[in-house]
Design brief:
The chain has helices at 55-62, 84-88, 106-116, 121-135, 150-161, 180-195, 207-210, 230-237, 250-258, 280-293, 308-323, and strands spanning 15-26, 29-40, 44-48, 70-75, 78-79, 91-94, 168-172, 199-204, 215-220, 223-228, 241-247, 265-269, 272-277, 298-304. It is of the alpha/beta class and 325 residues long. Mean pLDDT is 89; it is low at 1-8.
């Protein structure tokens, strides 16, 4: 960090982000409702929820771009409402739309954002060299950004978001729309940044990505429905046991199982079926009997450890029951 960045307020509790009762209303609509969580410094923190759940609205409040209706939030010791201008110089943000200028070259984008954040001279040259190497774009500095593939644009967008060495990086659905290989490469960059001490808050709907976060929150219709480390959430938030079914026609089996009206959830997972039940000892024989009676070949029916996606669906369903009362 350069010397001019030493004015950050001292944060004695080791937290990069503190959110307490954060609420945002648009007229009669409550987009975010009494959200509270903390993020320790240097952590990769996952923020999960379906589209429209309130993830982006929460991030925009933490960036100081939206004023909360009520509640408080501090990022690296700055009040997001009262000190938003000072805060923005110390944090980075990457949206899923990639804040890049397609008619500029790779280097011109880096120069532009360096100027925006006051990074100039030798420092800018050092940062550009690091980012180009990190993103695998060394030698492609003069290429127009619009000619880059989705994966390369993604890495360049990350580069411009960290050109000023932010202490906290907000990534809003950063891997949406890119191929699995690019997603994996991007997460390797995230790990590298976290190892260097950057705190990262990332929203994602990819459950395999969420598994790699140290802590998570699930948000549903503006309400937090679960939070904690992935392994703890799986133990504490799963409502029922998960039974995995492998049969020769999953698409035909799903409606048959749903019509029994005894399971908490019946969902396709690729070519497999996951059933959530509170009574696996009784329901496993019922599953086998139902499917074989309808002419399906059952390869296996067994209890498994819940995946994060199982837990998310279960938590969301429970929250819907509560919110619907």
């Amino acid at each position: 960090m350069d010397k001019q960045q030493t004015t950050t307020p001292t944060n004695h509790n080791g937290l990069a982000i503190e959110v307490n009762g954060l609420t945002k209303k648009f007229g009669d609509f409550t987009a975010v409702n009494q959200v509270s969580f903390t993020v320790p410094r240097g952590e990769i923190f996952g923020f999960l929820g379906p589209n429209g759940a309130g993830k982006t609205t929460t991030i925009r409040m933490l960036l100081g771009l939206l004023t909360p209706t009520s509640g408080t939030a501090n990022v690296i010791g700055y009040d997001v409402v009262k000190e938003s201008e000072r805060l923005r110089k110390r944090i980075g943000y990457m949206s899923q739309k990639f804040s890049l200028y397609n008619d500029l070259t790779v280097e011109e984008n880096l120069n532009f954002y360096g100027g925006v954040y006051g990074v100039r001279g030798r420092k800018l040259r050092e940062r550009k060299k690091y980012i180009l190497a990190m993103a695998g774009l060394t030698g492609r500095e003069r290429e127009l950004t619009k000619n880059l593939s989705g994966g390369w644009k993604q890495r360049l967008a990350l580069g411009v978001a960290i050109i000023h060495e932010p202490e906290v990086l907000f990534l809003d659905e950063p891997t949406a729309g890119v191929d699995p290989i690019s997603r994996r490469a991007f997460w390797e960059l995230i790990y590298e940044l976290a190892e260097q001490g950057t705190t990262i808050l990332v929203t994602t709907h990819y459950m395999d990505e969420a598994e790699h976060c140290q802590n998570l929150v699930f948000i549903q219709r503006g309400n937090l429905v679960a939070k904690g480390p992935p392994e703890v959430i799986k133990v504490e938030q799963m409502h029922g046991d998960v039974v995995e079914i492998d049969c020769d026609d999953a698409s035909q089996a799903v409606p048959l199982l749903r019509d029994l009206n005894v399971f908490e959830e019946v969902a396709l997972y690729g070519a497999l079926i996951h059933v959530v039940t509170n009574n696996p000892a009784e329901h496993i024989p019922l599953i086998e009997k139902t499917l074989t009676e309808h002419g399906l070949t059952v390869t296996s029916v067994e209890r498994i450890a819940p995946s994060l996606e199982d837990v998310f669906i279960s938590s969301a369903r429970e929250a819907e029951k509560t919110m619907g009362r």
